[in-house]
From TrEMBL:
Molecular function in Gene Ontology: oxidoreductase activity
Statement: the UniProt record of this protein carries the keyword Oxidoreductase: yes
Domain of life: Eukaryota
Protein name: NAD(P)-binding protein
Record keywords: Oxidoreductase
Family, similarity comment: Belongs to the short-chain dehydrogenases/reductases (SDR) family.
Pfam families, A to Z: adh_short (PF00106)
Organism expressing this protein natively: Coniophora puteana (strain RWD-64-598) (Brown rot fungus)
Length: 285
């Protein structure tokens, strides 16, 4: 049996964050649970001692607060084995339906917040844990970070940005640091993010037809047709955290898998059809 580990979890109030917090505590691990409203997990505080569960108020959009949370984690536990970078928000609307403020607010959390946590995680793994311990940064991305969704244009943009940051980050890391990074790409799962916490922006009249792609996506994402079980999903994610050399990506849901396959075929088709157009675009001596 492996020794208990220490998890740093953002967005621990609901969804994957709450489910993961509950799961790893049940398994005997310790958790630094961060969230905007600590009272949201008073049930867990009442159940577990402070030695096992450290609850910190955190707004991931504030980089100084993120750094302070990692400092408190170091003081309390001396190490972090897994950072579960999960905090996020979802506002849905077509490009013409969503105002700049709503879009920027979502980008602040889904991209900049995740970037702040990623930066502190890498620094902590390298400078506090050292290569003997290393660490795993688990980014909670989305199918929408691989395949754009109609009616979720800015949400997809925020997750695409996170994917780009993460791919580039992995290439920057010195293998000797023993830092592992995986992007988890869930499809549609029933979580509070896609129910109580979802924000549906008022539709532009041009897109209001119920049969339009954006309208259909809105209807689907808040319906009982969303068949992914968040509690079962985090069991798979936790299993991944034990893999010595985890993959860069973990697609999670049949819709994610199908979407990636379709996109790969589309990219290949475009390259095969138009790749030769690049033959004569170079300087010649």
């Amino acid at each position: 049996m492996s020794a208990p580990r220490v998890w740093f979890i953002t967005g621990a109030s609901s969804g994957f964050g709450k489910s993961m917090t509950e799961l790893v505590l049940q398994k005997g691990d310790s958790v630094i649970a961060t969230l905007r409203k600590p009272t949201m997990i008073d049930d867990l505080v009442a159940k577990y001692p402070k030695e096992r569960l450290l609850v910190l108020q955190l707004d991931v959009t504030k980089p100084d607060d993120v750094a302070a949370a990692f400092a408190k984690a170091k003081e309390a536990y001396g190490r972090i084995d897994v950072v579960f970078n999960n905090a996020g928000r979802m506002s849905l609307g077509e490009l013409e339906s969503m105002g700049d403020k709503a879009a920027r607010d979502m980008m602040e959390v889904n991209f900049w917040g995740a970037a702040h946590v990623s930066r502190e995680a890498v620094k902590f793994f390298r400078e506090v844990n050292g290569p003997k311990v290393g660490g795993l940064l688990m980014q909670v991305s989305s199918r929408a970070g691989i395949v754009g969704n109609p009616g979720g244009v800015y949400y997809s943009a925020s997750k695409f940005a996170l994917e780009g940051l993460t791919e580039s980050l992995v290439k920057e890391l010195n293998p000797e640091w023993n830092i592992k990074v995986t992007m988890v790409e869930p499809g549609p799962f029933r979580t509070k993010l896609a129910s109580d916490n979802i924000i549906l922006e008022e539709q532009h009249p041009a897109y209001a037809d119920p049969s339009a792609p954006g309208s259909a996506f809105r209807q689907y994402i808040v319906s009982s047709n969303v068949d992914g079980d968040a509690d079962k999903a985090v069991v798979v994610m936790e299993k991944l955290s034990h893999v010595p050399n985890p993959p860069l990506r973990l697609p999670l849901h049949r819709r994610t898998i199908a979407g990636i396959k379709d996109k790969a075929q589309s990219l290949t088709k475009d390259v095969e059809e138009y790749g030769s157009w690049s033959d004569d675009v170079y300087f010649t001596e």
